[in-house]
Amino acid sequence: MSNTASNDDPTVARRHGRTAQRLRALPSCRRAIAPLYRIAATAAVMSTAITATAAAQVGHNPLHSPYRDLRVKQQFTFMGGYLGGGGGSAGVGPRDGPIGGVRYSLSLSAPLELTLGVYDGHLTRHLLDPTAPVGQRDAGTAIQSVLIADAGFTLRITGAKTWHGFAPYMGFSMGVANGTAVLEDNSSFTFRRPFQFGPRLGLRYYRGSSVSLWVEGWDPMWRLRYPLTFFSAPSGSTPVLDPSVHGQTQWVHNPTLLVGVGISIGS
């Protein structure tokens, strides 16, 4: 009798519903962090390569070596590029758009750098009305300004040297992404100050001791939180998201391509 009463208790039912949503969100979280395990494994391999690179210098005439010492201590990099946002299962998250910013790098050791960055993206948002029937939900698009701030570390694969002027690197950063309000959006979905993190892989080319050109692939990941209206079916229709398949939160990838110019100081 008491068990039946507890199962009929609305508070218990809501608690069970939240627990089920968290469990459904676990596969999405695992998929989001899977690249980090690959980054860690690659970093171990790259560390071995750095040691081998240093050993390869022994016995070579410096005048004929493809390697040159890199004496950069600090660097400001100005970049621009394109972010290809995932938008999430409902398609309402920040999507593709131009992005630009500046990054500060401080050399901590031969292979390791500390990085601080600020970026501003103008990203497309798809708007919808979750209370309307299927086929009538499209409410157009809007542009949302998203300010990303992060801190991280970069591993220079060739250490404090360049190879024919090139210096490949890989890294990881984390921070926040702050989206401005979208007045045209009446769906109750918001994108404000979510935590973001992600790996990066890039290549720098030094034409001298003070200027470098570079290209980078970056994948900042952030979590979307959907309002409950997305899981409620309007009369005679279906919900935006099926509650038996989707959780209330979702981690999404945002592959980004950046190009930039670096100015070195303190060489």
Helix content: 10-25%
Shape: elongated
Classified by CATH, the class is: Mainly Beta
Strand arrangement, major sheet? 2-3-4-5-7-8-9-12
Distance between the termini: 78 Å
What's the CATH architecture name?
A: Beta Barrel
CATH topology, by name, is Porin
Report the total helices.
2
What is the structural class?
alpha+beta
Please give the largest β-sheet.
Answer: 8 strands, antiparallel, barrel
Note down, in words, how this protein is organized.
The chain is 20% helix and 44% strand. The longest helix is centred in the first third of the chain and has 47 residues, at 10-56. The N and C termini lie far apart (78 Å). The chain is elongated and about 80 Å long. The chain has helices at 2-8, 10-56; strands at 67-69, 74-83, 97-107, 112-128, 138-156, 161-163, 166-179, 195-206, 211-218, 221-225, 249-253, 256-265. With 267 residues, the chain is α+β, with helices and mostly antiparallel strands. The strands form 2 sheets. An 8-stranded antiparallel barrel has the order 2-3-4-5-7-8-9-12. Strands 1-6 form a two-stranded antiparallel sheet. Mean pLDDT is 84; it is low at 1-7. It has a single domain, classed as Porin, CATH 2.40.160.
Task: Explain the layout of strands and helices.
Blueprint: H1 2-8, H2 10-56, E1 67-69, E2 74-83, E3 97-107, E4 112-128, E5 138-156, E6 161-163, E7 166-179, E8 195-206, E9 211-218, E10 221-225, E11 249-253, E12 256-265
Antiparallel strand pairs: 1-6, 2-3, 2-12, 3-4, 4-5, 5-7, 7-8, 8-9, 8-10, 9-12, 10-11
